[in-house]
Amino acid sequence: MDDDRRKRVLIVDDEEDLTWTLSKKLSKDSDIFELTCVNSGTEAIEMLNQLPFDLVITDVRMPEVSGLDLLVKVRELYPSTKVVIMTAYGTSDVQKEANDRGCFNYIEKPFEINDIRELIISALKRKKGFEGNVSDFQLSDLIQLNCLGRLSTALQVISEDETGLIYFQEGNIVHAETDRYEGENAFHYIMTWDGGEFTVMKNKIPERETITKGWQSLLLESLRRKDEGSDLAKKEAEREKRKRQRRIQQLLARIYKSEGVEHVFLHSRVGFPLYYEGALSDRQDVLSDFGNYIANLIDHVSKYSKFLKGDDLEFWEMRFNQRLFIMQYIPDQDAILSIIGKENVNSGYIRLELRKHLDALADLLK
Asked: Model confidence over 41-54: pLDDT tens digits?
């Protein structure tokens, strides 16, 4: 949108008295924004198709095209347009928690003119379009909109190969079902899905009602369960990481324990340490310099390899009077294994160990 033009605000509500009052009272701010008021979702879509709007403020519960339908359309066609929801159904802990998680903005009815004026000015100053995910809704957003708007609908959610249905009657969640579960268990299960597609099915009535708990408590419990599940996943990932590190240590310890081996150093191509066994274990500053020296050496050798048309360097062994240096690239990984030892190192044994465990080491570094 053009930053030089005056900002445009569209207010949508089927209460004509409200839109008339807002038009009059907010006219004093015409130097800040240009206000348009309409009385249906259909009119709002027509206006959006004609002019670019920076902000849409819409009631949830309207005939024909609801505030939810309008919000879907705005996010689909005009992702840079901000949206604020008007609701007449009170605040709750779940609304605050959902907003903290990046859900839609809302304002309660009845509101003071100064409240909505401040909200408009604040929203227009923010550069970001939507709070949260622009490309699609979070499921908690959709559930709140249906409940706050006292809608009687069904929400069909499709995630990968699974389909779930959540039914609303006058804003209450009365039933949920999936292929595996029904009732509260189905609702909580659907809420664990990370992504997918949804369809709003108007005036669809469930064959039975299996949920009696209030929607605020139900949604809060699901959000908390999801957080707990996320924490468990992080802990599991950390356990898996430690397990891989132990396995890498076991594989490389076989080489380090070979007679004459002084340094076993697993590092990135630019020398960043990944694993080390040797006399420098407690000298991270020296180890970083050590990695840089090795990386520079390998870089020069790689250039000679290409000059000789040898393609990429995979393995290199260099013997000095008093030291042996062996370098092995780890397949498909940004990692190199460098082994340094005294002149009596059994390089044949090291090569054998590398051939035996190279693929396993590559898998552990993924």
From this structure: 999 999 999 999 99
- Decide if 244 contacts 364 (C-beta within 8 A): yes
For residues 181 and 92, give the distance between their C-alpha atoms in angstroms, rounded to a whole number: 28
CATH code of 294's domain: 3.30.450.30
pTM score of the predicted model: 0.45
Q: Where are the beta strands (DSSP E) in the chain?
A: 7-12, 33-38, 55-59, 82-87, 105-108, 153-159, 162-169, 172-177, 197-202, 261-267, 273-278, 315-319, 323-329, 336-342
Long-range Cβ pairs for the range 49-52 (8 Å, 24+) = 51/8, 52/1, 52/8, 52/78, 52/81
Tokens 């190192």 correspond to 345
- 5 and 140: one domain? yes
Cα(302)–Cα(47) distance, integer angstroms: 63
Q: Phi and psi (nearest 5°) for 175?
A: -165, 150
**Burial zone of 357 (CB within 10 Å; 0-12 exposed, 13-18 middle, 19+ buried):** middle
d(CA 352, CA 98): 58
Number of CB atoms found within 10 A of residue 136's CB: 15
Domain stops at, among 146, 162, 192: 146
CB-neighbour burial class of residue 57 (10 A; exposed 0-12, middle 13-18, buried 19+)? buried
| 55 vs 127: CA distance, rounded Å | 12
116 Cα distance to chain centroid = 31
Relative to beta strand 261-267, strand 172-177 is unpaired
Determine the pLDDT at residue 231: 63
Show the low-confidence residues of the chain (pLDDT under 50): 1, 90-91, 94, 97-99, 101-103, 128-136
Instruction: Using the 3D structure, point to which of 90, 121, 146 is the last residue of a domain.
Output: 146
Q: CATH number of the domain that 41 lies in?
A: 3.40.50.2300
